[in-house]
Specification:
The protein is of the alpha+beta class. Helix content is 50%, strand content 14%. It has three domains: 113 residues, Acyl-CoA dehydrogenase/oxidase, N-terminal domain (Butyryl-Coa Dehydrogenase, subunit A, domain 1, Orthogonal Bundle); 97 residues, Butyryl-CoA Dehydrogenase, subunit A, domain 2 (Beta Barrel); 148 residues, Butyryl-CoA Dehydrogenase, subunit A, domain 3 (Up-down Bundle).
Length: 389
């Protein structure tokens, strides 16, 4: 993979609101087709690359913007307003670069490689952990994917599920273990490496354009230095505040964007829709105004909560706890789901039509509850923190 020398890379700025609005509006015009076909929006990511959006959380030392979690959150909500699936893939990309810029836990040459790939080629990156037999590793258990030392470096064999963005990824960060289980961790695998195969299994209720397919790794050879973050199994189970913050808050931002899209649609709809039986726009009815107001309260407060915790993390990461992140995630998830539900109830039967934007928003926002941490884990973490205190 060819990359630009660092001296040729200029440091981009955080995308302007007008740029994000233009991109989101364009993506919204394509979203229904990608949702219907469960197709990956390659053209959206070309547009994001051209606008410099993919560079936002790339470390500034490699020519990126070095944006924080608040910056990422604002961009993700804006993009998800147009297309939730594109927002979800972008969130995963931002998470990886945001962590690399702050934890610096990879060898510097590889950090530079993936950073410059994003800047010069729009190279997307995501971590793949879930496996068919294991399920989510956050629930415990050992990886079934094996990375074995060979003369050329490492040979990787395994099967991953829910690899968001799979068709568009330049890099997979693969969770695996050594055959003797002495080490577990992450291996960097190029998306075009020999032996990487995508099985198009993603046929989901929501986020249908996210290309969250299965990925098979069969005798994939990577250089020795592509073992980027290896640990003893006991150390690998320890919680990581930076990972929790970036993963939780970046995904929160996506679903806030979905709820805002549903609200904005409802505002336009009730202002423009004037049934002959009423002789005036729906927005003149007290019941409609109350419904819209209830929805707006949920959406506004979810956004304010998101802005507060991301700003606090950026200012002082240690001031935010993993339990608090989980609590915020559950509140934002509940409020965004309820908000879109109110929009459907307000419009009635047309809102459940497959041709209606609200129907897509309703399906997409349901996915928020599935992401880690789920409610039971958040509740136990909150209780543990209180009892330990």
């Amino acid at each position: 993979m060819s990359v630009l020398p660092l001296s040729f890379v200029s440091q981009p700025e955080v995308p302007a609101p007008a740029t994000l609005k233009r991109l989101a509006t364009t993506f919204a015009s394509r979203a229904a087709a990608h949702d219907r076909d469960a197709s990956f929006a390659f053209e959206n990511f070309r547009d994001l690359e051209s606008a410099g959006v993919l560079r936002l959380t790339v470390a500034s030392e490699f020519g990126g913007a070095g944006g924080g979690l608040s910056d990422a959150s604002q961009v993700l909500s804006a993009i998800a307003w147009g297309d939730a699936s594109t927002g979800l893939v972008l969130a995963m990309h931002y998470i990886q670069h945001g962590l690399l810029a702050r934890k610096r836990h990879w060898p510097s040459p590889l950090r530079a490689l993936v950073a410059r790939s994003a800047i010069s080629e729009g190279g997307l990156i995501n971590q793949v952990r879930v496996e068919p037999e294991l399920g989510s590793p956050t629930r415990g258990g050992e990886a079934g994917t094996i990375a074995e030392r060979v003369p050329q470096g490492w040979r990787i064999n395994g099967h991953k599920r829910y690899a968001t963005g799979s068709e568009g990824l330049a890099w997979f960060v693969v969770w695996a273990r050594t055959p003797d289980n002495a080490q577990v961790g992450m291996w960097l695998v190029p998306g075009n490496a020999l032996g990487v195969r995508i099985e198009k299994t993603w046929d989901h209720l929501g986020m249908r354009g996210s290309s969250s397919h299965d990925v098979i790794f069969r005798d994939v050879i990577v250089p020795a230095e592509y073992a980027v973050d290896l640990k003893a199994p006991a150390d690998a189970q320890k919680s990581d505040l930076h990972h929790s913050a970036w993963f939780t808050c970046a995904l929160n931002a996506v679903y806030v964007g979905v709820a805002e899209a549903a609200r904005d649609f409802l505002v336009s709809y009730v202002q423009e829709r004037a049934p002959t039986s009423l002789g005036a726009p729906l927005s003149t009815l007290p019941r409609i105004r109350e419904q819209l107001g209830r929805m707006d309260i949920l959406v506004r407060s979810a956004r304010r909560l998101q802005e507060s915790i991301t700003a606090e993390y950026d200012a002082a990461p240690g001031s935010v706890s993993i339990a608090e992140l989980g609590a915020v995630k559950q509140v934002i998830s509940d409020q965004t789901i309820e908000a879109v539900k109110i929009a459907i109830e307000t419009i009635g039967n047309p809102g459940l039509s497959r041709s209606h934007p609200l129907e897509r928003h309703f399906r997409d926002v349901q996915c928020s509850r599935i992401h880690t941490p789920q409610l039971d884990a958040s509740a136990l973490a909150a209780a543990r923190e209180r009892l330990d205190a």
